[in-house]
Amino acid sequence: MLLGSAAALGSAALGSTLLSGCATGPGSNVAQLKFWHLLSGGDGVVMAGLVEAANEANTTFHATQTVLTWGAPYYTKLAMASAGGRAPDLAVMHASRIPGYAPGGLLDPWDLSLLREFGVTEQSFPARIWEKGFIDDRLYSIALDAHPFVMMYNTDYAEQAGVLDSDGKLVETTSPEEFIEVARAMQGASGNRGLSYGYLNDGAQMWRLWYTFYRQMEGEIELPVGGEARIDEEPAVRSFEFMQQLLDDDIATSRNDYATAVAEFVSGQSGIFFTGVWELPTMKNAELPVGGAPIPTLFGTPAAYADSHAFVLPHQTQPDEKKRREAYRFVAEILKGSFDWAGAGHIPAYVPITEDPAYAELSPQADYAGAAEIINYDPPAWFTGSGSDFQNIFGEFAQPVLLSGADPAAAVSGFRQRLNALLSKPNPV
């Protein structure tokens, strides 16, 4: 069991952390906050700037970052620290992972009245993002952002193909047939592919696009503890079939992995790219003429797969009340100063940021910001969420469908059986 070994492994696990920010803080009257997160690369640089700005603007706290390896290693270390009495004052988790942690007592709930004192309320967030932070009637996470799966496109190719509207945006498509028509026009302009989409050996990529189309058809997935998974078969199969249409080795190649798809789009070999908002800095650095929008609503209901980076309070048996209060102040300061987080491509969750007139000037961030209103997180279960095995398991069944034309119905059935096996097991944390 994971938690049974927490005390023995805790110090060794933490030995691989990378400390950033100031190593020393101000005087003893200042609350010294330990802040863990899993943000590296460009995200890590932006977060370091937000933390530094919050530290400089406040004399009552000083936050020191610890950056750990993304994915399973991070979540394992966070669980061990909470169970072993060595939890940091604050941490960042994906909102989709909260159902696996909060019920087991690894997180402490947020005090709504204290949040309100620092200007953070339900009205500060889009409804779906705020609601995702709750387990039953207690708030366990406060989102910094939404990072949905979106559509990016080469604006020069779109103009050449004649598929820009009067506002200079890619024309709206409302059916699979319309989208394929636009993709073929973009293929003609690029001289190679209409669409880039990488998925080989990447369950998360397969899940993000499949789940987007599945939710557009109002498909539901229910994962009752100790019960059997429910997946709506018709939309599940239709979603696979449409992805097969796109991956016809004409509109889009059926053999791209994630990195190859990025390179294909960045080098001008395709006109449209299905990707996460986090790839926007890549496009900007390449000086690509790029536009953006939510994934088109092709099956009736606006929907987009997404997750959120969210602040949590790892469980402390006897929290220092002064430090806990300053942790609230710190989160409020980060949220209120999160305009720069949009530069990393993410959609800031704090509504006053996205309603700022300056945000409307950001391109293409302002054009896909509406995705925050239609986001769909992983179905809640202890084994779902970013960095979990759930999306990898989905990929085991999805890849043969997309790569070699395997039967979509058989893939759905196999995936359901694997979920049933997980539902029969207890949450290890």
What share of residues is helical? 25-40%
Number of DSSP strand runs: 18
The CATH topology of the largest domain, please? Answer: D-Maltodextrin-Binding Protein, domain 2
Categorize the overall geometry.
globular
Structural class: alpha+beta
What does this structure look like?
It comes from Diaminobutyricimonas aerilata. This is Multiple sugar transport system substrate-binding protein. Keywords: Sugar transport, Transport. There is one protein chain. This protein is an alpha+beta fold and 429 residues long. It folds into two domains: 3-144 and 308-375, Periplasmic binding protein-like II (D-Maltodextrin-Binding Protein, domain 2), CATH 3.40.190.10; 148-306 and 389-423, 3-Layer(aba) Sandwich (D-Maltodextrin-Binding Protein, domain 2). 40% of the residues lie in helices and 17% in strands. It has 16 helices and 18 strands. Strand 6 and strand 7 form a beta hairpin. The longest helix is centred in the first third of the chain and has 17 residues, at 41-57. It starts with 5 loop residues before the first helix and ends in a 6-residue tail after the last helix. 48% of the residues are buried.
